[in-house]
Amino acid sequence: MIPMTLAEIAAVVGGTLHDCPDPAMLVTASVEFDSRRVTPGGLFVALPGEHVDGHEHAAAAVSAGAVGVLAARPVGVPAIVVPAVAMHDRRAMALAADVDGSGAAVLAALGKLARAVIDALEDLRVIGVTGSSGKTSTKDLLAAVLAPLGEVIAPPGSFNNELGHPWTALRATSSTRNLVLELSARGEGHVAALCRIAPPQIGVVLNVGTAHLGEFGSREAIARTKGELVEALPAATDGGVAVLNADDPLVLAMAERTAARVVLVGTSPRAEVRATGVRLDEQARPRLTLHTPQGEVEVALAVHGEHNVGNALAAAAVALECGATLEQIAAALAGARAASVRRMDVRTRMDGVTIIDDSYNANPDSMRAALKALASLSHGGGGVHDAPPRKSWAVLGEMAELGAVAVAAHDSIGRLAVRLDVSRLVVVGNAARAMHTGAVQEGSWGAESVLVADVETALTLLRTDLEPGDVVLVKASQSVGLWRIAEALLADVAPIQEQEVAK
Ligand SMILES: Nc1ncnc2c1ncn2[C@@H]1O[C@H](COP(=O)(O)OP(=O)(O)OP(=O)(O)O)[C@@H](O)[C@H]1O
Ligand SMILES: [Mg+2]
Fold first, then answer.
1. Which residue puts its alpha carbon closest to atom 16 of ligand 1?
2. Burial of residue 283, with CB atoms counted within 10 A of its CB: 0-12 exposed, 13-18 middle, 19 or more buried
3. What are the beta bridge partners of residue 152?
């Protein structure tokens, strides 16, 4: 964090100092909510969690070098104590339902501190990314394309909520040029709340899908929430830029909701930053021609799946706004591999079996994208290669949080697997049963689709029936834990090193 005294922090967050012999003590290192990550000069944030109360680790954090603790009550070591937040204020804060009054107070204080830091860093550019799918993938591509322009701070993994978002913002310092933030939403007002913590100059909206449909009620409600990002941007005259996916009608419509300059991206002719000639190589990695107002360049992505084309276009559009050249962008995209785990992580074992581990999460849109990548990979990349098709396996589990449309959504994924001519469908867990029944009803199939009770049964089946050269997609919502299948299959036979696969 930028250097601030405990007294300054207390003033910014509206807290009082306790057990604090020296209010002028400077916080110079990072702000952490995990006491094991605290380093000398840092600030520890005590959060009351479901299983552990951070307040109990305050003394350990100070022993590890924390200058002080941001807390909801005195903890016997130097602390900035913030008062509990009333219920009606909590609703406006984009908080998880299980956060209580004292947790809300600490999170609100963290947000205020992040805002103070952002406001103090005049040369910092904040870039916000939202959408139903692809935020983390795009954030990782953005970190790569912006790297040649100076120091970039981006969250690790998927830090995108009321905790991970301000935690990431607080890592920015005077040497940071670009801060990339992922903005998630579980309800209306959530994206707006995150924008108040770190006001973005550039906002990217990727898509409006059906993720969390159960909580939002409709895609229009999801669009209203995602659009809060473009409403929060500065006007075009003050440098605000909204990067919108022209291929998604609900995102395109957001152009009406912003005073920022709109840059459309996509494959549609109206897109200013556009891809043509999209094709997939034998590893399902997209190749395309990138058209921009500055000219054209050939781009070969290192990430897998056609859905990454839109993510890469958004990253390229932002990089152009920030002053990158086309050559810098093409080179960065060619080198940017999936930096966050279990997202289209494609590995080929020594026996020629390819595992696509996309088990991080699933919703209907990302399921469709992953199934298409599976089909394309097993057909040697969109049929442009000579090799005979490989046998394809889709090992799929429940897509959670879909509410009333859950059965229909699972049913249509099962049918899509048949239409894409996937060789074997293994549906894991009863919650995803409708995928199996959908596949069976779609027609030609019989034994090609099976419903198995759990991960262990799926593994036994795969270990018995997998043959050299097969391609296996593993995907479900995070709660299903299907990565255990991908990990076990990769432990059975070692994967070939990536450089060899790339040849
Ligand atoms: N543009 C896209 N359209 C559809 N699916 C996508 C897109 N980009 C990535 N995916 C797929 O969606 C899944 C989630 O990707 P990613 O983690 O990048 O999204 P996210 O928006 O950060 O998700 P979360 O809301 O869980 O943070 C992955 O399985 C990935 O393969
Ligand atoms: Mg994410």
1. 134
2. middle
3. 178
Cα 41 to averaged position of ligand 2 atoms, centre (Å): 30
- Domain of residue 101, residue span: 4-107
Q: Could you read off the pLDDT of 173-206 as tens digits, one per residue?
A: 999 999 999 999 888 899 999 999 999 999 999 9
Residue nearest to atom 4 of ligand 1 (CA): 366
Residues in the chain, total: 503
- Residues forming a β-bridge with 397: 428
Q: Strand pairing partners for 345? A: 357
Please give the Cα distance from 487 to 481 (Å, whole number): 11
3-state secondary structure of 249: helix
233 with 365, same domain: the answer is no
Q: Whose CA is nearest to atom 19 of ligand 1?
A: 134
Residue 112 belongs to a domain: no
* pTM as predicted: 0.89
Burial class (CB in 10 A: 0-12, 13-18, 19+), 233: buried
Look up the CATH number of the domain holding residue 221.
3.40.1190.10
Closest ligand 1 atom to 370 CA = 31
Strand order in the sheet with 449-452: 345-348, 354-357, 471-475, 392-397, 424-428, 449-452
